[in-house]
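Table S2 (text version). Query chain:
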Amino acid sequence: MKPGVGLIGKKLGMTQVFREDGRPVPVTVLEAGPCPVVLERTEARDGYRAVQIGFGDQDAKRLPNPQAVQFAKLNVQPKKILQEFRISKDDTVAAGAVLTVEMFKPGDRVDITGRSIGKGFSGGVKRWHWKGGKQTHGSMSHRRPGSIGSSTDPSRVFKGHHLPGRMGDRRVTTQAMEVVRIDIEHNLLLVKGSVPGAEKAIVLIRKSRKPPKVHLPPPVKKRAAQAAKPAAKPAAAKPAAGGKK
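Corresponding structure-token output:
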């Protein structure tokens, strides 16, 4: 897969599949592509290199005339969603090409960008995992923020202070997700773990540039290391002061 080039997909939901050794793996099912390349950006004309791809069929009557003409020239069904992906100088992706899930293979790592589920106005306990106040009789601040003002100096609330407010409904990227399985016939991509967004939400899928985390084995406990060492010989007792030699 070309670095920088990706796919537009739709989140269908979560399920589980079994690996060859019988272990179950939780996966998110994505309908990825096919995504035709509808526009190519060049440095000479636009100042940068990129390709614009589309996803989801759309009626030509619902599009502005310039976009309808653009799709008609390429003989491509109009698309609802358009997204640009920057490409490098070595990439060669021409307008009219169709990108599918075949650009991935099991074991690849991908970055998936979506819009998280909006949860409305939330308090600090839910939004920032505050501990909360005492739950005893007579306490009147179980889940309230309490005093947030500072003393005479600096006499203000610091910027960025965690407070109740709007939660979710923001752009989120989950990095280095493992591709578990690919269904080329139905344009399905199965990735390990959860993907941001609700069901039927639109997501962007790119090849990951960040290596996955390496889980090292836990360190050997000091007690086990000490038990493996041979016992030290007891030191010889020193004669008391003023005694016979």
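Notes on Table S2: The radius of gyration is 29 Å. Residues 120-167 form one domain.
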